[in-house]
């Protein structure tokens, strides 16, 4: 799913950030796991309820002077070590509109949960399910986007389920139904992996054992955070020839510049290859600028032919390729937001997904295990 200071304002800022986070999560944005965990209340006993699968979890609460019937159920899988469920729930409780709600958590291993998910065509976890979307968000803090417009409220993005409740995806990428290797990883068909890499610009060693496939757009602030944190450089330094990268496109619909920016990247890559492609990626994120005029100017500074670049854009040469990245390969990995990071062993086909902008250590944990 938007693209940072004073101790007295910390609480207000965190409340503002969560609105944007939830909007991003349903359509796909990323968060810094450690910073979220370190800047929220640790009194989780008052935040989350538990359920053995027998109670309904129904709660009557009061918010902003109005009584609303609202239940929130979280469906998750304890096998997912990179799911951001805890951090998101802590942030959710900072919103006045839902701070009073008891949250019931149900794991995939619990009796009846797999059948429930199948019946409702849910194949990606974690997932938040709301019993209603009619709760008062009038006093929730407002976050503005890049265009200065207020970000839509949480309940605006609740999607109806057949049985009358509403779902909210929070960077959901863990498919509990998929077959896993003995090491606990998902398995990717090698021909599909070969096709993805063939249509991607590869950075670092072409024969690396591990490939980091990133699904991002240049307007995504969490993608910028991931890149500007030094994670790519840290991983390159640590793993050397054992790791390479493939940047694939996932332009979010509410990012006005994202699709054109992806086209410019591809048109530049056509002229200047992988080096030009990744140089522009780095520049866009470091400057936090994804406008057409800025990217074309930077592409020309990388010695691209401006006339050929504009013709490539006018002809829509890479529109189909960009949509394929998002709608075919992105769906293959259950990518719902940006950045969506896939770490895959090129020899075994084992892979894992990291949704959102996690620190370098989270990447290292998975890569080290994949290399064993």
CATH topology of the largest domain: Glutaredoxin
| Total DSSP helices | 12
Question: In which order are the strands of the major sheet placed?
Answer: 1-5-4-6-8-7
Reported for the largest beta sheet, the result is: 6 strands, mixed
How many β-strand stretches?
A: 14
- pLDDT averaged over residues: 80
How does the helix and strand content classify structurally? Answer: alpha+beta
**CATH H level, superfamily name of the largest domain:** Glutaredoxin
What's the number of domains? 2
Question: What order do the SSEs take from the amino end to the carboxyl end, as H and E?
Answer: HHEEEEHEHEEEEHEEHHEHHHHEEH
Supply the CATH class of the largest domain: Alpha Beta
Low-confidence stretches at least 5 residues in length (pLDDT < 50)?
1-67
Provide tags for this entry.
372 residues; alpha+beta; Glutaredoxin; 2 domains; six-stranded mixed β-sheet; 38% helix; globular; disordered N terminus
């Amino acid at each position: 799913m938007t693209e940072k200071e004073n101790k007295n304002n910390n609480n207000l800022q965190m409340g503002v950030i969560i609105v944007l986070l939830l909007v991003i999560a349903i359509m796909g944005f990323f968060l810094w796991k450690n910073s979220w965990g370190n800047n929220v209340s640790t009194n989780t006993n008052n935040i989350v309820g538990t359920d053995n699968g027998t109670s309904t979890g129904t709660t009557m609460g009061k918010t902003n002077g109005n009584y609303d019937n609202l239940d929130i159920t979280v469906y998750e899988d304890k096998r997912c070590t990179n799911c951001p469920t805890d951090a998101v729930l802590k942030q959710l409780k900072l919103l006045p509109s839902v701070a009073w709600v008891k949250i019931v958590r149900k794991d995939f291993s619990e009796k009846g949960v797999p059948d429930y998910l199948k019946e409702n065509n849910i194949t990606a976890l974690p997932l938040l399910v709301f019993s209603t979307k009619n709760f008062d968000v009038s006093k929730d803090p407002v976050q503005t986007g890049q265009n200065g417009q207020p970000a839509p409220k949480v309940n605006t993005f609740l999607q109806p389920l057949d049985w009358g409740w509403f779902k909210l995806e929070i960077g959901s990428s863990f498919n509990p139904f998929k077959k896993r290797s003995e090491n606990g990883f998902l398995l990717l068909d090698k021909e599909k992996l070969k096709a993805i890499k063939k249509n991607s610009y590869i950075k670092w060693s072409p024969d690396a054992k591990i490939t980091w496939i990133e699904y991002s757009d240049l307007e995504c602030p969490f993608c910028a955070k991931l890149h500007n944190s030094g994670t790519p450089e840290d991983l390159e330094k640590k793993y050397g020839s054992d790791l390479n990268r493939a940047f694939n496109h996932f332009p979010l619909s509410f990012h006005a510049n994202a699709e054109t920016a992806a086209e410019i990247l591809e048109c530049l890559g056509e002229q200047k290859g992988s080096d030009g492609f990744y140089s522009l990626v780095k520049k866009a994120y470091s400057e936090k600028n994804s406008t057409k005029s800025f990217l074309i100017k930077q592409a020309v500074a990388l010695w691209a032919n401006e006339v050929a670049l504009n013709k490539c854009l006018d002809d829509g040469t890479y529109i189909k390729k960009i949509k394929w990245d998002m709608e075919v390969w992105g769906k293959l990995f259950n990518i719902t937001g940006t950045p969506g990071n896939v770490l895959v062993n090129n020899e075994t086909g084992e892979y894992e997904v990291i949704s959102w902008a996690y620190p370098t250590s989270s990447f290292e944990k998975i890569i080290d295990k994949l290399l064993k």
